[in-house]
Design goal:
By secondary structure, this protein is an alpha+beta fold. Pfam families: Thyroglobulin_1. InterPro entries: Thyroglobulin_1, Thyroglobulin_1_sf.
Length: 121
């Protein structure tokens, strides 16, 4: 996972044009590989709660899979709590491990994690 990356002062001057705003909105954290390269577009703005508990577990797994079905990730690179595969849906923890019995996706609303979208732990 990368550190917070902020917009340069030149870019800020252009964007702000005399307005007084919180500069943290120009900082974001992104998921990266071991060389620091961003993984897909997984990132979160510093002031967004999604950046507080980023673990990028899902983004890392996606980057290792060449073909086939890949896990569904939140915008910050964490796992979405409901994962779908071959017509079946299941709840997963923040590491992508299945935590309850899977159901046919037509009954996804029966899952305990149905109303939750992204892990915040």
């Amino acid at each position: 996972m990368g550190e917070f990356v902020c917009t340069t002062q030149d870019q800020l001057r252009f964007l702000l044009q005399g307005y007084s705003i919180n500069l943290d909105i120009f900082c974001s954290k992104y998921c990266s590989d071991t060389l620091g390269n961003q993984l897909e577009n997984f990132a979160a703005i510093k002031t967004n709660t999604m950046s507080l508990n980023m673990n990028c577990n899902c983004a890392r797994v996606r980057s290792m899979l060449l073909d086939g079905e890949k896990p569904e990730c939140c915008i910050n690179g964490n796992y979405k709590q409901v994962q779908r595969r071959r017509g079946l849906c299941r709840c997963v923890d923040s590491n992508g491990v299945q935590i309850e019995k899977e159901v046919d996706c037509t009954h996804v609303n029966q899952l305990s994690c149905f109303n939750m979208t992204c892990h915040s732990e």
